[in-house]
Amino acid sequence: MLRVNGLYKKYDDFEAIKNVSLYIPRGVVYGLIGSNGAGKTTLLKTVTGIFEKDRGTVTLNEKEIYENVEAKKKIFFIADNPYFYPGYTVKDMANFYKTVYETWDEVKYERLRGIFKIDENKKVRNMSKGMQKQVAIWLGLSTNTDVLILDEPLDGLDAVIRQRVKKLIFHEVIDRQLTVLISSHNLRELEDFCDYVAILHSGEVILEKEVEKLKSSIFKVEVAFNDGMPEELMKRIKLIKAVQKGRMWVLVVEGERIEIEKTIQSYNPILFDIVSLTLEEIFMYEMEGIGYEYENINY
């Protein structure tokens, strides 16, 4: 398991990561979402041991990662802009990783070569950003590490390749309990891909939950009453947001669906509908709740 506890990272006077704690079980896909400048990349690079933390602990199977060569051999990190040595071909990079990762799987490398259909003798730096991302994922999966950490891995890929990459990662999770930590602005991509999600804002985790539990605990309600919204009802439900549109109210409510329905129905509404929210909508309301302008988010 990958565990982050009380992590704090500062650049001069800027607090990039503030007391972040995460628990990432083995064999899950864990999504990290947040606005630009939220601290996602800093967090990932600190978790992988690239950056030194100021306080807190980052452990893999209860062993500290920073300056621990054996622990780092169990982790492969793919940055938003992957680094490749100048003049190196895909094959050159593969040969390099063979010397670093004892878990390198040559059979898997050859199988993935047939899937990605990229010339392994071509210099990687001469490729487009999208092709470089594919090469990084190809090499990363071939290392066969226990943990794969990805910073915006689907950015720059077309729809077909995105689905192919997600399917490959998903099979690794199922087949050998690969643990995946992934950051992305694309909430729609994470919704059907992640088991857990954390929302990071200004270096702090403001929400962490299983995706299915999160989506089954926050609902949008449209409701209307003959004599207006009962004040007592507003006090009985856990209200995140309320907007009045004529006689109808649009509410965002947290809680168990059955209990929400039962409570609202007890006031005899003339119109009532309740629907689950998408991950994107949940993110929007959570960010609005702390005063962030959602329109500023680039995803």
UniProtKB/TrEMBL annotation:
One example GO MF annotation: ATP hydrolysis activity
Tree of life domain: Bacteria
Keyword list, A-Z: ATP-binding, Nucleotide-binding, Transport
InterPro entries in alphabetical order: AAA+_ATPase, ABC_transporter-like_ATP-bd, ABC_Transporter_VariousFunc, P-loop_NTPase
Protein name from the UniProt record: ABC-2 type transport system ATP-binding protein
SMART domains per UniProt: AAA
Domain ABC transporter: 2-227
Pfam families, sorted: ABC_tran (PF00005)
PROSITE patterns listed in its UniProt record: ABC_TRANSPORTER_2
Entry keyword annotation includes Repeat: no
Keyword Flavoprotein applies: no
